[in-house]
TrEMBL record:
It comes from the Bacteria. InterPro entries: RHF-like. This is HPF/RaiA family ribosome-associated protein.
Amino acid sequence: MNVLIESSRSGEPQAWRQQVEQRVRSVLHRLQGQVQQARVSLRDINGPKGGVDKQCQIMLTTAGYGQLVIVSKAEDAQGALNQALQRATHSLARLWQRKRRPARQASLA
């Protein structure tokens, strides 16, 4: 799985980027066969004003499901990342289960 990390702040510490990449890989490890690429974008929406303004967008390119885009907001970047990853895994698992379910047959009553 290819993981790309984008941030609105230039000059993010390399250790922080590695931590984000490691977190994405560990959470999506179970679904690795379905996810070909994960693009993580972290932004500070309104600058240094504070508040719930850190936005994380995760775009997953999947095999068989197309692209899945998840957006979350939180007070800090780590919280926004965790929320987005939780939603992404939940959505992928739901899509996978739907695809595995047999189609309903119309009853012949």
